[in-house]
Amino acid sequence: MRTIDITTTQNVTIQYELADLKDRFFAWLIDVVVWVVFIILLLILFYSFSTSDRVETYFLYIVVIPVILFYTLISEILLDGQTLGKKALKLRVVKLNGRQPSLSDYLFRWAFRGLDIYFSLGALAAVLVSSSQRAQRMGDVVSNTVVVRIIPQLSFQLADIMRINTMENYVPKYPEVKRFSEDDMLLVKQTIERARRYPNEAHRKAVQLMVQKLTDQMGTELPKSDYLGFLRTLVSDYIVLTR
């Protein structure tokens, strides 16, 4: 799984999993289904209220072409870098410099869809996403963006499971951890990894805030020190209690 580190404007480095060709294809496929359903519903309405014998022509120019051309652009602007397909698959467009994508970034991505997808029947986009280091099509390169997974696809690593399986007498210290979801604990694991890889003040504060939030939700006492050790214990407890 290819990953990328993006440093935000607050100087916090976040590791994302890059969306691969399969992810982006299925997101596009969901969007196509949305187009089709939307167009069919509007076509029914057109036939219900129009008496013109040229309803198909009007419908083509008023609805079909605008939907196909502008759906992605409008969706990414309104949904913060997502279309409905991306949203369903937990994907999002982000800037490589950590800033929020601007209107011009979305415009560049949209403008190059003609070359990347429509004129080449998707071949150029497929080749570029599959072969480039950052899984970028031409529109991504020009706008300095990438498509990432908001929620990592990978679950707990096999090493975590094997480590817990060898602890025959392991007794979970915080049974309250069961109230959290796997996505919550994946976020905890990512926070631990980032704090280990980037031992700066921003990540130390992130760890402290996470520990504070978790202890508040579990109703347990805040550890006096070794916050990372506390988080590692929570991950171990969660695996034991939910495996």
What structural class do the secondary elements suggest?
A: alpha+beta
The parts where pLDDT drops under 50 for at least 5 residues are none
Figure out the total of helices: 11
Strand content: 5-15%
Number of strands: 4
Counting structural domains, the number is 2
Reported for the largest beta sheet, the result is: 4 strands, antiparallel
What's the gyration radius in Å? 23 Å
Q: Return the average pLDDT rounded to an integer.
A: 84
Write the layout of secondary structure elements.
Elements: E1 3-7, E2 13-18, H1 21-49, H2 55-78, H3 84-88, E3 91-95, H4 103-111, H5 113-118, H6 123-131, H7 138-143, E4 145-149, H8 158-165, H9 182-197, H10 201-218, H11 227-242
Antiparallel strand pairs: 1-2, 2-4, 3-4
Helix pairs in contact: 1-2, 2-4, 9-10, 9-11
Question: Key features?
Answer:
243 residues; alpha+beta; 2 domains; 4-stranded antiparallel sheet; 4 strands
In brief, what are we looking at here?
It is built from 11 helices and 4 strands.
Describe this structure in words.
- This protein is α+β, with helices and mostly antiparallel strands and 243 residues long.
- It folds into two domains: 3-149, no CATH class; 158-242, no CATH class.
- The protein has eleven helices and four strands.
- Strands 1-2-4-3 form a four-stranded antiparallel beta sheet.
- The protein is elongated.
